[in-house]
């Protein structure tokens, strides 16, 4: 299934949620974590991930930390205070969207989703 | 997970150098991404996986990423400095701002125009120049490991954060030339009455000092995480 368009709109929420749970992560680690959590169903491409990370950093929702790892430098991302506040509102937004989609797809079904 | 051999590391560096990424912030991220990915595969799959990565990180994609990163960093520096400037107009910093304006108003009315230029504009310009040199030195130190990794390539590596910040720091130098030297060239300085010149001095001086203080505070915030 080509789900890249569906993921695109929720990518920032995915990143924020993962960083809320994992304190700090680097780009490649985020792609692998998403792959692992969704059993390979969702693959975040580099083409989408890094611009999203850089945008969130510029908006002040993420902060970075540079660490020396095996003769190279690694850039870790973590949530700022504003980012921590943003997670719950982004999740509520996504939850409402998914519930509405459920209503459209299955009009008889009353979804009770929880994040 | 295995460790890549020297030959493999050189191949990775060469492949990334072909993408002509010059921003240290992006270069370290792309390099790390390549290495972690390749370390997850056995030696016999190295070339195949390197090609797969090269297909994802195309030249045009890297250029766009670098351009967007530059825009985002610019936005971030502007946002930080503007936030700091705004804070000088809110309580309790407002007290400092008012005392400062009062102080320079008093000073401007007491000293000659030549002294005004020396004290009110000369000092901040000297400070900003020294600050500029300091930022350049710090950046050089911070990006040294990245430059060392890619020393065999012809990449001219620099920090976008530092470049953007230097533009901000040097802003009053252009400002100084435009408002004080350009009117002199056209002989317009004599047209401005003395009292107006004093008010202009107070305004420009206030802006330059505010810029000096906020630039330093912005640097203090950003240098904790950026290559600055």
Automatic annotation (TrEMBL), chain A:
Domain Transcription regulator PadR N-terminal: 15-87
A Pfam family this chain is assigned to: PadR
InterPro entries for the chain: Metal_resp_DNA-bind_regulator, Tscrpt_reg_PadR_N, WH-like_DNA-bd_sf, WH_DNA-bd_sf
Superkingdom of origin organism: Bacteria
PANTHER family linked to this entry: PADR-FAMILY TRANSCRIPTIONAL REGULATOR, TRANSCRIPTIONAL REGULATOR RV3488
Assigned keywords, A-Z: DNA-binding
Coiled-coil features, chain-numbered ranges: none
Protein name: DNA-binding transcriptional regulator, PadR family
Naturally occurring in which organism (per UniProt): Algoriphagus alkaliphilus
GO molecular function, one term: DNA binding
